[in-house]
Prior knowledge:
The protein is mainly α.
Amino acid sequence: MVPLLLVLLLALVLFGAGFALKALWWIAVIVLAVWLLGFVVRAADGSGRRGRWYRW
């Protein structure tokens, strides 16, 4: 009974880790898209100023 519970617990942990990693990948893709969009918006500003579009 104990080995069966350990296998089920391991499967549950691996499933949770896989879901969390997939969610983190999607968040990373969204952040990258926003970052690249910031460069495009800054380049199309047309004000002639050079600088960063972000504050940090």
